[in-house]
């Protein structure tokens, strides 16, 4: 447990690269058909304290007559660093590459072709708009069919039409933005770049109460389709929230705009079919759970009619498809425009699915092995183009692995091929637990729900002693710990700890009923579920040490960690919490998602809500601060000074409560970090301090 060795180990597990996007192109030669797969990877580097991006290419040779079988995979090309790229897109016909790049404080738009750099515009110097949006919420870069125009979203210039005196008067006026991780993103505008004359124009006609994003050209390139988020009466945080009122709009170049989806819904991820006839998109409810099971809708562009391709799944059958919970990849259509491919949570797994538009039948495309003998617990689709799927597979002991396979014909299985094995696999053992709450912990409104957990532990034990157990709880609460590569879990297990990652009721992948069951029951149902999972693990595995237990987690996982050491003070020996919710009542006025503060405790939210004594009492009653006086376990707190979702003053509140009682507490403050504590140096600091804290107190 020498600090330099712990940091070295963390550098090893966190520095393993992961593919983040991919592109497929195809060429027909006289005897063979070749496919080129270009994957972009992300890799953390502790020396630089930053994440690097690089790209790598593979050439696949398929039979000409039966192109759905790969004959040969040629060795990959070298890794080429990708510096400063914010967003990029490849043109549909000639394969030109458009890139928005950040370099020495300027944003450049570059067009690359087979002869090198063809065009470069300094967007910052042109002053047509503010910064280009590169985030997953609004960001986009879309080529027109003729390859003469590009579409993107950028921040509207401030005071473009007011005089000098007005600017002076308004320079301190408050400007709302879209919250956590979207700082300074306030008024997104759609721009069109004409590549022939270099002109940039703002698309007129977007409704004034709507913020546009995720824009793409409609067939014929005479109009665009975009998602518009309603921002009146004020903006609520958008990141990790699939419950914001929004709609799909169609806007022509003359400024005529129409809404083509339903009203009072939440929508995202419009994806155009290769034949240009249909757009699929995700749809959910407004307010309530901030993340939810979504339906998959299809919009016929000719008739303007929408229909449901996949319904919300309330209760999945054992082993069956459990619903859609996450964004669609940029390319998700089969070449014949009849099937849509996507990844989604299923219990403690992340699986790969295809839905057929004729039959609405859903098929799993991952290995056809039974769950307990699967090599990979997680299958994430990066792209499907020319019917070739590119996926990232991993499991708790196998780092991200790049695999490819063709979409199967009816009744066939996919033949998967690995393009890039991870540099190393780890000698760790993992298993999935199914947990059934006892009758007294059943939810009377949503009876019969169960949940799960993933247990990871070192294969070899030191000196035949029992293994200390670290209970790792995800945030959200409506998210998931799939059986995938997690560098924190792998690092802890390499250091001799067992790790139990719990998917309590309310996690994604167990159906909408499970998500709804947690509403109004935070601080009780989820706390009991984690405790039940720990007891189940201890009963099923005698190598775990029931006397050496610790609990860790971030956000709602931090909330539950602090609840557990307060509600079960004799059970846990240590706690480490990142940006935890400590007092929901005092968080009400400072969070960017004020609606969730009400929804989580079972109260309806409306924009004009004014707090009542009853509402604040309900929030306080469900908070860990009410159990602070009972906490005996030493608590490590890690807080981001720029957290907009859970104010760092939440953690400070517990810190003071524990200090005043002479309870052991240590606080790490990261002034430049936000809610996810995602900076590379911050993550390394948090891992080192957590490990030393656990080692000291276990």
TrEMBL record:
Q: Which reactions is this enzyme annotated as catalysing?
A: Cleavage of an N-acetyl or N-formyl amino acid from the N-terminus of a polypeptide
The opening ranks of the lineage are: Eukaryota, Metazoa, Chordata, Craniata, Vertebrata
Its name, as the record gives it, is Acylamino-acid-releasing enzyme
State the oligomer form and interacting partners. Homotetramer.
Q: Name one GO molecular function term.
A: omega peptidase activity
Keyword Hydrolase set for record: yes
**Gene Ontology BP annotations:** proteolysis
Organism source for this protein? Pogonophryne albipinna
Residue intervals passing through the bilayer:
none
Chief location: cytoplasm
User: Which Enzyme Commission number(s) are listed?
Assistant: 3.4.19.1
Tell me which UniProt keywords the record has, alphabetically: Cytoplasm, Hydrolase
Q: Which residues form the Peptidase S9 prolyl oligopeptidase catalytic domain?
A: 489-698
């Amino acid at each position: 447990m020498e600090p330099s060795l712990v940091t070295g180990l963390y550098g090893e597990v966190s520095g393993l690269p992961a593919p983040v996007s991919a592109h497929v192109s195809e060429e027909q030669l006289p005897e063979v058909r070749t496919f080129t797969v270009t994957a972009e990877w992300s890799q953390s580097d502790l020396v630089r304290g930053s994440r690097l991006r690089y790209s790598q290419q593979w050439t696949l040779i398929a039979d000409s007559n039966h192109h759905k079988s790969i004959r040969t995979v040629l060795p990959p090309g070298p890794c080429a660093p990708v510096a400063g790229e914010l967003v990029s897109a490849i043109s549909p016909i000639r394969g030109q590459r458009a890139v928005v790049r950040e370099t020495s404080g300027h944003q450049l738009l570059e067009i690359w072709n087979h002869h090198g750099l063809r065009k470069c515009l300094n967007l910052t110097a042109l002053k047509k708009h503010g910064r280009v949006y590169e985030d997953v919420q609004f960001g986009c870069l879309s080529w027109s069919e003729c390859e003469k125009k590009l579409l993107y979203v950028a921040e509207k210039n401030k005071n473009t039409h007011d005089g000098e005196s007005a600017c002076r008067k308004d320079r301190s006026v408050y400007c709302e933005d879209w919250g956590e991780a979207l700082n300074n993103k306030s008024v997104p505008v759609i721009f069109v770049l004409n590549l022939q004359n270099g002109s940039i124009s703002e698309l007129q006609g977007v409704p004034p109460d709507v913020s546009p994003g995720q824009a793409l050209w409609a067939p014929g390139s005479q109009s665009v389709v975009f998602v518009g988020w309603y921002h009146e009466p004020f903006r609520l945080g958008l990141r990790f929230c699939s419950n914001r009122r929004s709609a799909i709009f169609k806007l022509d170049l003359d400024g005529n705009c129409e809404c083509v989806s339903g009203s009072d819904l939440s929508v995202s991820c419009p994806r155009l079919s290769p034949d240009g006839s249909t757009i699929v998109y995700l749809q959910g409810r407004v307010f309530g759970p901030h993340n939810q099971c979504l339906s998959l809708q299809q919009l016929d562009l000719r008739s303007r009619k929408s229909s449901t391709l996949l319904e919300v799944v309330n209760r999945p059958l054992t082993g069956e498809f459990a619903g859609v919970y996450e964004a669609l990849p940029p390319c998700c259509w089969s070449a014949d425009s009849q099937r849509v491919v996507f990844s989604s949570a299923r219990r403690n797994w992340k699986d790969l699915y295809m839905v057929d538009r004729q039959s609405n039948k859903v098929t799993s495309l991952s290995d056809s092995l039974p769950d307990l003998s699967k090599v990979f617990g997680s299958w994430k689709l990066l792209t499907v183009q020319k019917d070739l799927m590119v996926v990232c597979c991993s499991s708790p002991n196998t780092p991200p692995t790049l695999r490819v396979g063709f979409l199967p014909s009816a009744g066939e299985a996919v033949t998967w091929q690995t393009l890039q094995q991870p540099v190393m696999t780890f000698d760790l053992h993992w298993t999935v637990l199914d947990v059934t709450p006892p009758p007294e912990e059943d939810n009377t409104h949503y009876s019969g729900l169960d949940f799960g957990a993933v247990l990871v532990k070192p294969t070899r034990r030191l000196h035949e002693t029992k293994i200390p157990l670290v209970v790792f709880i995800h945030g959200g609460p409506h998210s998931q710990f799939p059986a995938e590569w997690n560098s924190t879990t792998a690092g802890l297990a390499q250091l001799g700890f067992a790790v139990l990652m719990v998917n309590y009721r309310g996690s994604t992948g167990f159906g909408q009923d499970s998500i709804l069951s947690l509403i109004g029951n935070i601080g009780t149902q989820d706390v009991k579920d984690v405790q039940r999972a720990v007891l189940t693990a201890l009963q099923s595995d005698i190598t775990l040490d029931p006397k050496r237990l610790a609990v860790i987690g971030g956000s709602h996982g931090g909330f539950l960690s602090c609840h557990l050491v307060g509600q079960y003070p004799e059970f846990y020996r240590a706690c480490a919490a990142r940006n935890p919710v400590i007092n929901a009542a005092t968080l009400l006025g400072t969070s960017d998602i004020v609606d969730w503060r009400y929804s989580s405790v079972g109260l309806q939210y409306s924009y004009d809500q004014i707090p009542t004594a009853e509402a604040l009492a309900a929030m306080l009653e469900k908070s860990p601060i009410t159990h602070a006086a009972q906490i005996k376990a030493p608590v490590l707190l890690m807080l981001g000074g720029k957290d907009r979702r859970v104010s760092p003053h939440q953690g400070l509140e517990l810190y003071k409560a524990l200090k005043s009682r002479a309870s052991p507490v240590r606080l790490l403050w990261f002034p430049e970090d936000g809610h996810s504590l995602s900076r590379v140096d911050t993550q390394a600091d948090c891992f080192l301090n957590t490990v030393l804290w656990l080692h000291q107190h276990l």
